[in-house]
Amino acid sequence: MSHNIVDDFMKTYEELSDVIFRHCFFRIGDREKAKDLMQDTFMKSWQYVSTGTAKVNNLKSFLFCVANNLIIDEYRKKKEFSLDTLMENGFDPGFDDRNKTESAIDARFVLDLVKKLDDKYKDVIMMRYMNDMSPGQISTIIGESENNVSVRIHRGLKQLKAALLNG
User: Is the full-model pTM beyond 0.70?
Assistant: First the structure.
């Protein structure tokens, strides 16, 4: 096995492990389970990449695909998903540098609104704005065209705006 593959994978782990953890934590709402899912994501990805039987062109997108599949498996085991639990466990998305209490109130309000979106909008909004992913990266992960992803983001934001104005 090439030393370069190991080095590249370790570099990717250092760069993305926190991002993958936050993604899992936001979706699952359990810190320990999110750690396990993040570790499983990298283990399964390494098992696939290290065999050398197939080339992965975009490792970041591949990692998110693996993480999302593990999250889906977790949903099947545990049908309960709670953003309230996430906030109670101290998740602070750090939207801005304002007073921490004010920021927590704003974050909770936004998360409550995001929670009410249809899953197809909620997922792309979280990937786009919580994980700072491009529509192209999201399209690779969810297996939809980039145009469909952009439309979902637009419609999801439109629903959020309507909820803000009405709520």
Answer: no
